Amino acid sequence: MIKIYGILKSRAVRPVWTAEELGIPYELVPMHYAGDEVKSAAYLALNPNGQVPTLVDGDLVLFESLAIDLYLAKQHRAFGLWGADDHEEARIFQWTLWAATEAEPLARQWFRYTSFLPQESRIPALAAAALEGLRARFAVLDHALRDADYLVGNRFTVADLNVAAVLQRFVQLGGADYPNALAWHRRCFERPAAQRVFGERG
Predict the structure, then answer these.
(1) Of the four, 35, 44, 46, 81, which is 20 to 30 A from 29 by CA?
(2) Which of 14, 49, 79 is the last residue of a domain?
(3) The pLDDT of residue 36
(4) Are residues 127 and 175 in the same domain?
(5) Is the overall model pTM greater than 0.90, yes or no?
(6) In which region does residue 7 sit, left (phi positive, over 0), alpha (psi from -120 to 50) or beta (all else)?
(7) Are residues 45 and 128 in the same domain?
(8) Which of 51, 79, 107 is the last residue of a domain?
(9) How far apart are the first and last CA of the chain?
(10) Are residues 91 and 181 in the same domain?
(11) 111: nearest Cα among 35, 168, 65
């Protein structure tokens, strides 16, 4: 059985969602991203970044949530989250990297300066700048979904899971102005696996 280190109120929710979609057994090892345990020697031996999540699958130890999702989807490709051919696989990598490089830095900037930091440390101008930057990214996403329900092969894949998980606060980030992307986001989070995971997350 695979082990996923982290808590659901962290990026560990992403590989947990993937495991639920795939129907594979897993153990969630509770570890808070801000707790002392992530700085312990035992945990740093698994993840030298001192962050969550970390996946342990036999001899494989893997960090970075989106990479873990890709690995699990490919390992269990019969369940349909992976690409059907090289072109679909390339699109999965494209959208996952887009999520990591184009969308997540701005989404995190907004969250940091509106919710994560103590009130006295928040900078509204940086939160507003993040929202403005996300408008161009959401336009790209909305255009990609103009004639399709999903990002790759017009079926739900790990590409959708990764992008949707990064943009879980899509409406708060201004996503309501992008109807194609908004409908897609709702489809992703209406899936039974997402409902189970995010329902437990609270």
Answers:
(1) 81
(2) 79
(3) 94
(4) yes
(5) yes
(6) beta
(7) no
(8) 79
(9) 25
(10) yes
(11) 168
Are both 96 and 74 inside the same structural domain?
A: no
142 and 126 in a common domain: yes
pLDDT tens-digit map of 118-162: 899 999 999 999 999 999 999 999 999 999 999 999 999 999 999
The reply to whether 70 and 118 lie within a common domain is: no
For residue 129, what are the domain limits? Answer: 86-191
148/159 Cα distance (integer angstroms): 14
* Rounded CA separation 1/66 (Å): 20
25 and 106 inside one domain: no
Tokens of 101: 């490089």
Say if residue 53 is preceded by a cis peptide, omega within 30 of 0: yes
pLDDT digits (tens, 9 = 90+) for 48-96: 999 999 999 999 999 999 999 999 999 999 899 999 999 999 999 999 9
Overall size of the chain counted in residues = 202
Rounded CA separation 83/158 (Å): 9
| Packed helices 13-22 and 158-166: angle between N→C axes, nearest 10 degrees | 150
Q: Which of 193, 170, 181 is nearest to 141 (CA)?
A: 181
